[in-house]
Amino acid sequence: MNRKVKIAQYGCGKMSKYLISYVLEKGAELVAAFDVNPDIVGKDISIITGGNPVGLKISPASDADTILKNTKPDACIIATRSTMEELKEAFSVCAKNGINAISTCEESLYPWNSSPDITKALDMLSKKNNCTLCGSGYPDLYWGTMITNIAASLAKITKIKGSSSYNVEDYGIALAQGHGAGLSIEEFEKQIGTCNNLSSEEIGALVKKGEYIPSYMWNQNGWLCSKLGLTIISQTQKCIPHTYHKDLRSDTLGMTVKAGNATGMSAIVTTKTAEGIVLETECIGKVYAPEEFDKNQWTLYGEPDTTIIVNKPSTVELTCATILNRLPQLIDAPAGYISTDKLPYSSYMVKPMNEYITSL
Question: Which residue windows are coiled coil (predicted)?
C-alpha cells in the first residue's frame, strides 16, 4: 500500500490509549473515534492519548454508520465489551459499510463454539460487503500461537494444561463484572456458576439456543483444537469464585470488595479430543491483592514434558500490540468472519504498517 493506513477506533476506554498510540507510531492515520460515554464524546481524542489537541473529536457511537461511510477507514479497532452479543452491533455497522474490523473482545477470538448464530450472520454480512472481521489480543498469542509453536517441538502430546491470571482492574468494568468481582458467594453461584454441573451435551444445547456465556478459555480451547487439527468430542466448564481475607478496593467497580466476597473467578475448561489429547485450561481474573501479579503458565505433557512460564506480563499493552501486528493480515485476509487460527502467524512490524499490506 502506497499511502497511510486509515484506522477508526470504536471504544475509547482504558485500552484505547495504547491502541491509538501504537497505530499512530506505526505510521497509520486515525480518521474516526467512537464511544458511548457522554463525558468524553465531543472532546478531542487527545483526552485519551495525552498531549496537545489533534483536531479529531470523539463521536457518539450512534453516528458510527454515517462517519464510517464517509471516512472509509481500512480497519476499525473495536475495544468495548467482552461477548459477541454485546459486540454484534459494532461489528455489524463495520461490516455493513465494508470496513475490516478487529476486536479485543475475548469471545471474538473463536466465537464459532459459543455464539454460532451471531458469528454466521456476521460472516454472511462481511462476505456480502467484502470485508473481514476477527478477534485478537493477548490470548491470540500467549494462549494461542505461543502454545502451538511450542507444540511443534514435541514428538508426542497427551495433554495441554494452561493457566493465566490477570487483574480485572486493568480492563474496565465490563470484564470485572463478567468475572463476578464484588458479588457475594451466593450471588456468584446464582449469576456466574449456574452451568458448573452441566454435561458437555447440556452446554452444547445452551450454545445452540444462544444462552451460554463462555469463559475466555472456552473459546481458546476451540481455537487451539482448530489450529492443531484436533477433533473435539466433549467440553465442559466450571467457574470457581476467588476470595480474599481482607477488604480490597476496586477503582474499576467503584466499590470495596468485602472480605469473603468474590474478588473474581477461575474458569476451568476441560476439552477431550478424538485424537486422545486433553486440554485443561484455566483463566483467573480477579481484583488483585497487593502481593498478586499476572502469570501465564502452560505445560505440554508428552515427549518431552515442556513448561513455559511468563511472569508479570503487561497484558494490556501486549493485547494492544498484538492487535496492532494483526492489522495487515486482517486487511489482506479473505472476506468473512476469519478467526486468527486461519491466519498466518503474525510478526513484528519494523517498517510502517502500509508496507506490510498487499491487497490495497
Answer: none
Based on the structure, what is the number of domains in the chain?
A: 2
Spatial distance between the Cα atoms of 278 and 260, rounded to a whole number of angstroms? 33
Give the residue among 323, 329, 324, 337 at the shortest CA–CA distance from 359: 329
Whether residues 97 and 186 fall in one domain: no
Predicted structure pTM score: 0.91
**Do the Cβ atoms of 20 and 58 come closer than 8 Å?**
no
CATH of residue 292: 3.30.360
| 278 and 329 housed in the same domain | no
**Cβ(111)–Cβ(213) under 8 Å?**
no
pLDDT in tens, the chain (360 residues): 889 999 999 999 889 999 999 999 999 999 999 999 999 999 999 999 887 888 899 999 999 999 999 999 999 999 998 789 999 999 999 999 999 999 999 899 999 999 999 999 999 999 999 999 999 999 999 999 999 999 999 999 999 999 999 899 887 787 898 899 999 999 999 999 888 999 999 999 998 888 888 888 999 999 999 999 999 999 999 999 999 999 999 999 999 999 999 999 999 999 999 999 999 999 999 999 999 999 999 999 999 999 999 999 998 899 999 999 999 999 999 999 999 999 999 999 999 999 999 976
